[in-house]
Design goal:
It is a single chain. By secondary structure, the protein is mainly alpha-helical. It has a single domain, classed as Recoverin, domain 1. 58% of the residues lie in helices and 6% in strands. The chain has six helices and two strands; from the N terminus they run ααβαααβα. The radius of gyration is 16 Å and the shape is globular.
Length: 108
């Protein structure tokens, strides 16, 4: 399974599980952020079609989506869905991970 699929799966799962089930505080922060973003997405989705246009994102309280709208809208459809927002977040998380530490016994 690719690293992207694993991260995407974790973000998707994290959005569905209660925070008390997560062992790491870092994961709790991600869950809380995704949950808050999902609620803001729903509030900004004025016509309740499950999608946000750029205008809806800018008018709603979803600054993250409005700011990153063009990158989230990878298929250039003019709207974004929660799944696309989650995929974008997973992509950002996957590419922001620090490089693995060198082994203690490794010499330079």
């Amino acid at each position: 399974m690719s690293r992207y699929a694993i991260v995407f799966g974790l973000v998707s799962l994290a959005a569905c599980l209660p925070a008390s089930l997560h062992a790491q505080s870092g994961m709790n922060s991600i869950v809380a952020g995704v949950t808050a973003l999902d609620k803001s997405f729903d509030a900004a989705d004025r016509n309740h079609d499950g999608k946000l246009s750029k205008a809806e994102a800018q008018a709603g309280s979803v600054a993250f989506i409005a700011t990153h709208f063009d990158a989230i809208d990878a298929h250039h459809t003019g709207f974004v869905t929660k799944a696309e927002v989650h995929a974008y977040i997973a992509h950002m998380l996957m590419h922001s991970q620090p490089a693995p530490a060198a082994s203690a016994g490794e010499s330079h």
